Amino acid sequence: MKTVTEQQFKAIIAAVFGVEPSVIVDGLRPGQIPAWDSLGHLSLVSELERSFSFTFSMEESLGINSVADIRAVLAKHGVTITPV
Amino acid sequence: MTQSAIERLMHEPPFTLDAAVKAERFREAMAEAVRHHFANNELFRRQAQRSGFDPNEPLKDLSRVPFLPMAIFKRLSLLSVPEAEIVRTLQSSATTGSQPSRIALDHVTRQRQAQALVAVLTHVLGPERRPFLVIDADPVSAATGSTLPARQAALRGFLIAASDTAYALRPAAQGSLEADEDQIESVLSGWQSSGTSGCIFGFTFLLYQYLLERLEAKKRTFRLGDLAVLHIGGWKKLTQQKISKPELNRRLAQTLGMSERHIIDLYGFTEQMGVVYPDCAEGWKHVPVFAEVFARDPRTLGLVPDGTDGLLQFLTPIPHSYPGISVLTDDLGRVRAGRCGCGTAGTAFQVTGRASDHEVRGCGDVLAEELQAGGGSRP
């Protein structure tokens, strides 16, 4: 999957953490919701890999400190997030 | 906020920086860390004053940085930040008759720990994440909450290198663990048939007891040419059973059909979690850019000459929430400078044992008692 809508993007992350998609804003950081702890982070990376069919390096996984960072890594791997 | 000397250091390549540049960057970062803990931790300040150390003078000699004995972390909860900033407390396993260490972590410390660990794991395993077989039980089934046993915390940290994680052990009766032999068989035979570059990771003794001995008993061998084995946690129990590192490596390589060079013993301890020291091909542990090591005479606590056994003292600017930037351990070892046969330059060390002799052990304890007697910051 190389193109997703904004809605799909948020839904993927929201499903990992078991929260409403409206919670997934760019400024959201690990620790701000209980499910985004160190183990939740590993689940997040695994789910993103499954959804977008590429693998994160250790550095990339470490570098994700907000939802905005997820966008940046996806963009680097050629994933486009469309507004609708 | 401008990037501090410590944050800059964490972005340097861990093992390849020119020695003179490393020394300079490390000194700057340690000076910053020393000033932070001197200003914010009473015990660290007192220890500095005892040794006539002034944090406002340029830091020229790293061996003069005040150190805290490991025993003090078992006696006191030490903080260098307001308690509200603590997000997790690590608790080391207590050996019989001793108190566990309690290490309070804030976001800053945790982030640096993860950066340090990724830097070293990338050096050892390459940048790509790999499937892991962890020689432990699934931490989800273990205790959760803000206090985490240090063994679980150490495991979790390493999982950043894992693209997929299987657990080789499961909880058994009375809080003990047992090998999940079907799981081990299925993961290892899967890796063998697909040619996967997997990684087996766990505590040294658990690796020996639950994986190697079981497979040997069943005479089950594999051909896992691309496998890496990382193990941590020390040799105390294997030494008691007279199992040496060369023997463990030989037997693992034989049973798993892998290269001994890819079996890597890691040294690290809870009070400086995040910093791990892998063996190089020559059997030495090189200090990364964000750490330094000294060996001290157990009686005088003065430095011993290179190559002579002493108590190992480790420096790293990583701890921010507690004053663990300079810790005198109970481990004996020798330190060496210069270029190693493996090609890496800089300080390297080998751990040769633990200070089990009472006189030696007493020294760290006496220092801890003296420091405690002056009053500590117990939250």
Describe this structure in words.
The complex is a heterodimer of chains A (84) and B (379). Chain A is mostly helical. In chain A, 51% of the residues lie in helices and 7% in strands. Chain A has a single domain (3-82), classed as Non-ribosomal Peptide Synthetase Peptidyl Carrier Protein, Chain A. In chain A, strands 1-2 form a two-stranded parallel ribbon. The longest helix of chain A is centred in the middle third of the chain and has 15 residues, at 38-52. Chain A is globular. By secondary structure, chain B is of the alpha/beta class. Chain B has a single domain (5-373), classed as ANL, N-terminal domain (Rossmann fold), CATH 3.40.50.12780. In chain B, the strands form four sheets. In chain B, strands 1, 13, 14, 15, 16 and 17 form a six-stranded mixed beta sheet that branches. In chain B, strands 6-4-9-10-11-12 form a six-stranded mixed beta sheet, with helices on both faces. In chain B, strands 3-2-5 form a three-stranded mixed beta sheet. In chain B, helix 2 (19-40) packs across helix 3. The longest helix of chain B is centred in the N-terminal third of the chain and has 22 residues, at 19-40. Mean pLDDT of chain B is 89; it is low at 375-379. The interface between A and B is medium-sized, with 14 and 22 residues.
List the helices and strands and how they pair.
The complex is a heterodimer of chains A (about 80) and B (about 375).
Chain A: E1 3-5, H1 6-17, H2 38-52, H3 58-63, H4 67-76, E2 80-82
Parallel strand pairs in A: 1-2
Helix pairs in contact in A: 1-2
Chain B: H1 5-10, H2 19-40, H3 42-50, E1 68-69, H4 71-75, E2 86-91, E3 102-106, H5 107-125, E4 130-135, E5 147-149, H6 150-158, E6 162-167, E7 169-171, E8 177-179, H7 181-194, E9 199-203, H8 204-217, E10 228-232, H9 236-240, H10 245-256, E11 263-267, E12 277-278, E13 285-286, E14 292-296, E15 310-315, E16 326-336, E17 348-354, H11 358-373
Parallel strand pairs in B: 1-16, 2-5, 4-6, 4-9, 9-10, 10-11
Antiparallel strand pairs in B: 2-3, 7-8, 11-12, 13-17, 14-15, 15-16, 16-17
Helix pairs in contact in B: 2-3, 8-10
